[in-house]
């Protein structure tokens, strides 16, 4: 005769239950493996050109909105290097600082400047320079990152902190200075070049705008020179002019007794 089965307690844990489910103390002791360093993925190559931010080796900040002209002012310390933003050839070099508030001629507002025509066909201008690198002339080949001048405050920036006047446009003759001073908003490209996306090119936007406006559109903003000189400039000009002595008024000869001469 079989012995009766022993009654089991349903609340009793089955054998090995303790080892099957670790307790809180055991879970707290588990360490998460250290994460590896993030993998840096380069930005996608969006053009065949390689660009450089136009100020080298200095802290900078710049305007990211349209004020009057589609260009930007890159603030940096005096003497910082203005460099070629892309491979290309020198277009214009202006070594003199002829701008005067009394005339405010548009062609002279950028002061000392260098412009280049990039291998992308786009023109880039760096103005308000303190000095221009020796030996640069129209037609000189340059490489991206090559020093073209030193930042200053020439031209109509003479009463401001040092800065680089930076503009993007297309090639025209020197007479069309209002094209040279900037046609394409540059800050999206500056942001990309500064943050490492060195292939973002303004070529497509630049030539699309040229097709729309024509190669030599009329000047529509800040075109005229100053018609009236400030009082202090007038005084300077007055002092420079030679004075002409004023002749004394002549008296008529006396009449004789008959009333004739």
Automatic annotation (TrEMBL):
Coiled-coil residue spans: none
InterPro entries xref list: Dup_hybrid_motif (IPR011055), M23ase_b-sheet_dom (IPR016047)
A Pfam family per the record: Peptidase_M23
SUPFAM superfamilies: Duplicated hybrid motif
Skewed-composition ranges (Low complexity): 10-23
Source organism of the structure: Nonomuraea africana
CDD domains given in the database record: M23_peptidase
Domain M23ase beta-sheet core per the UniProt entry, residue ranges: 76-172
Protein name listed in UniProt: M23ase beta-sheet core domain-containing protein
Ranges where the record places region Disordered: 1-41, 220-261
């Amino acid at each position: 005769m079989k012995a009766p089965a022993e009654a089991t307690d349903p609340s009793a844990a089955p054998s090995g239950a303790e080892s099957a489910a670790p307790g809180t103390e055991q879970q707290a002791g588990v360490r998460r493996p250290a994460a590896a360093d993030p993998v840096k993925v380069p930005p996608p190559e969006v053009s065949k050109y390689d660009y450089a931010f136009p100020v080298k080796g200095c802290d900078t900040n710049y305007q990211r909105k349209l004020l009057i002209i589609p260009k930007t002012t890159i603030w940096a310390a005096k003497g910082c290097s203005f460099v070629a933003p892309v491979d290309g050839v020198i277009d214009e070099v202006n070594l003199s600082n002829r701008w005067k508030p009394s005339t405010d001629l548009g062609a002279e507002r950028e002061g000392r400047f260098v412009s280049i025509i990039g291998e992308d066909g786009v023109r880039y201008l760096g103005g308000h320079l303190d000095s221009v690198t020796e030996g640069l002339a129209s037609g000189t080949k340059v490489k991206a990152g090559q020093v073209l001048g030193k930042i200053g405050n020439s031209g109509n920036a003479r009463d401001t902190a040092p800065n680089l006047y930076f503009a993007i446009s297309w090639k025209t003759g020197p007479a069309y200075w209002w094209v040279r001073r900037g046609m394409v908003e540059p800050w999206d490209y500056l942001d990309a070049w500064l943050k490492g996306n060195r292939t973002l090119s303004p070529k497509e936007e630049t030539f699309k705008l040229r097709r729309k406006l024509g190669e030599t559109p009329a000047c529509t903003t800040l075109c005229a020179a100053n018609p009236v000189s400030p009082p202090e400039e007038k005084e300077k000009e007055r002092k420079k002019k030679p004075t002409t002595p004023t002749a004394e008024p002549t008296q008529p000869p006396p009449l004789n007794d008959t009333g004739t001469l």
